[in-house]
Design a protein that fits this description.
It contains eleven helices and eight strands. It has a single domain (3-288), classed as Adenoviral Proteinase, Chain (3-Layer(aba) Sandwich). It is an alpha/beta fold. The longest helix is centred in the last third of the chain and has 17 residues, at 232-248. A six-stranded mixed β-sheet has the order 3-4-5-6-7-8, with helices on both faces. It has a two-stranded antiparallel ribbon with strand order 1-2.
Length: 289
């Protein structure tokens, strides 16, 4: 383990449980949120389970800059957060769409309409304690399921998320008619789209790494294949690297806003984010040659 990374993990493990260590958008992470990524020699149980805050932070730091699109295989990708997907599921389970406040309704409709600027919508879903990815491919009218433990899930949460998206599109019907440009989506009834489980993906060998596989699927899925394969060893390394990337991200507001007397709060790192990304790009190029 490189010295900068090791020091960063030791720094996290030495903090108290309540101090905010990272602020990524609306996501605040403390030691407990990062514990499954930074602690040494945790048993293969819930202690190693990556929670939704760390997953959403991992999603957020990999999003393109505002105003730009994540384009893969010529298609625009929109990656939802776990929190928004959980809200979609709850909208159906709790029958809250019809009873939504004007503010909640307006926000939900605006988000659904934003989907229409994209060709694929990635939904991180949770079945009990298991994370997996559902990728909505609008041109194909297809829901692609990427699951690191094929014997676990999906359960009702996938159908409920699709039902909620369909219902919100119905709520947005008048707004959609007023859009200046017609959408390329063939229809909005995503609950009826074909569901396809993707075969041949890297799968987990333990009971606690599903969240890391989920993020890797989100980063690498190109509509028909992974842009780069990965192994269990890569996942074990990424568990540590993710904490480093969150803390060192330019989008970590707590890092940006450090005062002069707090410069030692996060130790200096020999490996910059740019170098890490350059290394990944180089590795990817060698793999595909």
């Amino acid at each position: 383990m490189k010295r900068g990374l090791k020091e960063k993990l030791q720094w996290v493990n030495g903090q108290d449980d309540t101090t905010p260590l990272a602020q990524i958008g609306d996501i605040t992470l403390n030691k407990s949120s990062l514990h499954s990524l930074t602690a040494n020699k945790l048993p293969d149980n819930n202690a190693r389970y990556v929670d939704c805050l760390a997953i959403d932070a991992g999603i957020y730091i990999n999003r393109p800059p505002e105003g730009e699109f994540d384009i893969r295989d010529g298609k625009k990708i929109f990656v939802e957060s776990t929190i928004n997907v959980q809200k979609l599921v709850a909208d159906i389970e709790n029958h809250t769409i019809a009873r939504s406040s004007k503010i909640d309704k307006s926000l939900s409709i605006a988000r659904i309409i934003a989907y229409l600027d994209h060709d694929m919508i990635f939904l991180p879903l949770n079945a009990g304690l298991h994370w997996y990815l559902a990728a909505l491919d609008a041109p194909k009218r297809e829901v692609q399921i990427l699951n690191s433990a094929p014997g676990v899930g999906p359960t009702d949460e996938l159908d409920h998320a699709l039902e909620a998206i369909t219902a919100w599109f119905q709520q947005a019907e008048e707004r959609i008619k007023q859009l200046p440009n017609p959408t390329k989506w063939p229809d909005f009834n995503v609950a009826t789209w074909d569901q396809k489980t993707i075969k041949g993906l890297p799968t987990q060998k333990d009971g606690s790494s599903c969240g890391l596989y989920l993020i890797k699927y989100i980063m690498l899925w190109t509509r028909s294949k992974l842009s780069k394969t990965f192994s269990k060893k890569d996942i074990d390394m990424y568990r540590r690297q993710l904490a480093h990337d969150i803390l060192n991200s330019d989008r970590n507001l707590l890092r940006k806003n450090q005062q002069p007397d707090q410069t030692k709060a996060i130790p200096d790192d020999e490996v910059s984010t740019k170098k890490i990304r350059r290394s990944r790009t180089s590795t990817s190029s060698r793999t595909t040659q």
